[in-house]
Sequence to fold (301 residues):
Amino acid sequence: MIDATTTDIDVLVIGEALVDITTTGTEVVEMPGGGPANVALGLGRQGIAVALLTRLGPDARGSAITRHLERSGVWVLAESFGAGPTSTAHAHILDDGSARYEFSLDWTASRERLPVRPRTIHAGSVAAFLPPGDEVVLEQIDRLAPEIVTFDPNIRPALVGDLDRARVRFEEFARRSTVLKLSDEDAGFLYPGLDEAGVLSTIGGLGPRLVAITRGARGAVLAAEGRVVEVPGRRVVVADTIGAGDTFMASLVADYPALHDDDLTEQALRELAVRAVDAAAITVSRPGADLPWAAELSVAS
Fold:
């Protein structure tokens, strides 16, 4: 039976939304952020029907995040709102443009039945590891049973705790995933004894059809069905790296559903990777997690 109150959407993103407090020298700027929220933002800006299940407080920061996302076409689900302050991440920008983070984060998620029927669910970041919400993310994925699951661990070592527990949780998500992206730093944390090829093989063996590892300025590598494709980074003047990985992930989430079962050719993988790298280059060229709009991506392609 079809529930008339349930809306079909392209993507449901489940994970944290927070305020990035960025310190560069003596300047302090607050901007909406959080890895999953950034992915939702990037998808909304590409015109994709996307909803976000997160956790926001009844405060000015929660309202600012909601307005920011809604202006880019993101449906922030009512189940996202609760008591307690909205979470924050304090990003200290270093001389090379990279960021060091300090978090004040409370991650819970609604167990309620949601008013959406998504083709894809994207999850990841702190929300995949931090209790009590991490279990709820898995429950929602299993309940909604989408056609595609995408995952980005976006590891924050100070928040995920014990390595063995983090790896177990990561692999629970990996077994449910169709597309999985992680950074070279994530790979080094989760599998310190493996080289890149070993990481790709290990994760691919857990079930994902497509595995990507980003290498920062050195580009990325994608692996699927025995094919491995490497693409270089783009030369840009870097404002900061906030949102770079989220932009890459949003590009994969947006592009993957158009591929059919027999379409993961070497050329298709290369095109996926190039578009994702180009999108991330736009984000790093300007301050904060200011992900590109569809028109900007058309120019870059």
